[in-house]
Design goal:
α2 runs antiparallel to α3. The two termini are about 15 Å apart. By secondary structure, the protein is of the alpha+beta class. The protein has one domain: Nuclear Transport Factor 2, Chain: A (Roll). The strands form 2 sheets. It has a 5-stranded antiparallel sheet with strand order 1-7-6-5-4. About 35% of the residues lie in helices and about 25% in strands.
């Protein structure tokens, strides 16, 4: 019960730090891949794949380079402590054994909505990622729907 309360507290913290039902960030400045000095990804699907890989590997630096908005990476807009707290929450909710990208559609402002199915053990969960184009024509994961991953967020391990 204590673990469930702690997990729910983490989810509540995530909700307090977002401006809607998903994990999101406040505006940022500058361009970005996670290799070299460049951040972001070459295309929306690569941004989601890079973000999912970074989450699975618990690579906070890689997540901070792909998570962002039209102004650039989150790591350039959010102080390090806050960035790491938010990334740890996202890592908890994006736990997966495997995932499949099952949809890609235009979204407002020239972004893309990417539908992803995550599999953790015998259960599959779906979520939607909002990906936006930033500086230097790079793509950033702006947010994803945390509420749809509530069961994963609550699982331990």
């Amino acid at each position: 019960m204590k673990k469930l309360i702690t997990t729910l507290g983490v989810i509540a913290l995530a909700a307090c730090h977002s401006s809607g039902p998903g994990a999101t960030m406040t505006p940022a400045p500058t361009p970005v891949t996670t290799t070299g000095a460049q951040t972001g990804a070459a295309d929306p699907i690569s941004a989601v794949r890079g973000f999912m890989t970074a989450a699975k590997q618990q690579d906070l630096q890689a997540m901070g380079a792909i998570w962002g908005d039209a102004n650039g990476p989150a790591r350039d807009a959010i102080n390090r402590d806050e960035l790491e707290k938010r990334e740890l929450i996202m890592i908890t909710c994006l736990k997966h054994d495997s995932y499949d990208i099952v949809g890609d559609a235009p979204s407002t402002g020239g972004g893309r909505a990417i539908a992803v199915n995550l599999r953790l053990g015998p259960v599959a969960h779906s979520t939607s990622f909002q990906v936006v184009r930033g500086p230097a024509n790079r793509w950033y994961v702006q947010k994803f729907d945390l509420e749809s991953l509530e069961q994963i967020c609550a699982q331990r391990g």
